[in-house]
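> forwarded from #structure-qc
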């Protein structure tokens, strides 16, 4: 595979929309096709990311929370490291990288919903990501009340965001849909209010149509 760059796919959406399930299903399909791939996530794809995860997701005392722009900078720091140490090296080896959340999450959460300056966050994302934009971004979409119920079933210990009220999750959903609308060449909205196999099929079909990969 020397010289052939892998594809970079990000999976975005609110809590409980099925991102990690779909990341893993696609990874298995690629394995069956002998296509080298790796899965990773943000925050948490690097050592520093695991610390960022701890600070940002488990600080529940409101008086200790950072401002939205400070949060965006911390997620950006994690992303910069993740790109340098994990994502780019894998792509250069020809691997597909399947990433559970990426820069659109910062724009949705810290920008559109938590009130950070959207233009500043777009500029930060551009600086951090550089030329390594995802080839495709799957925006997994389902009504907030359903995704929240799934998230609560799954988590033994809920994060700061999981504990937010339904209105917060509805705003997150709307933010991701707006981002998808603004980036139609990169983002594909996938309705995940369907059996997981059907959702996986739509993702495969999109990879076939957009990237020319055969899943037979
Ligand atoms: P998750 O692993 O369950 O997706 O949790 C990650 C949480 O971090 C989720 O609530 C969204 C949040 N987050 C941000 O607020 N901004 C970001 O840039 C990223 C990557 C995640």
């Amino acid at each position: 595979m020397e010289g052939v760059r892998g594809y970079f796919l990000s999976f975005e959406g609110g809590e409980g929309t099925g991102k990690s399930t779909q990341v893993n299903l696609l990874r298995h399909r690629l394995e069956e096709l002998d296509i080298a791939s790796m899965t990773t996530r943000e925050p948490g794809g690097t050592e520093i990311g695991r610390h960022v995860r701890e600070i940002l997701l488990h600080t529940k005392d409101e008086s200790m929370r950072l401002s939205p722009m400070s949060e965006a900078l911390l997620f950006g720091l994690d992303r910069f490291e993740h790109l340098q140490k994990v994502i780019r090296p894998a792509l250069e080896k020809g691997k597909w990288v399947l990433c559970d959340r990426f820069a659109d999450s910062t724009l949705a959460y810290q920008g559109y919903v938590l009130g950070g300056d959207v233009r500043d966050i777009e500029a930060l994302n551009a600086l951090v990501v550089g030329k390594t934009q995802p080839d495709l971004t799957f925006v997994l979409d389902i009504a907030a009340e359903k995704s929240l119920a799934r998230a609560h079933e799954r988590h033994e210990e809920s994060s700061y965001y999981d504990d937010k009220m339904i209105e917060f999750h509805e705003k997150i959903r709307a933010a991701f849909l707006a981002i998808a609308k603004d980036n139609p060449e990169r983002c594909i909205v996938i309705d995940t209010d369907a059996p997981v196999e059907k959702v996986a099929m739509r993702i495969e079909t999109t990879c076939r149509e957009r990237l020319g990969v055969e899943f037979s």
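QC bot note: Strands lie at 8-12, 37-41, 96-100, 136-141, 187-191. The longest strand covers residues 136-141.
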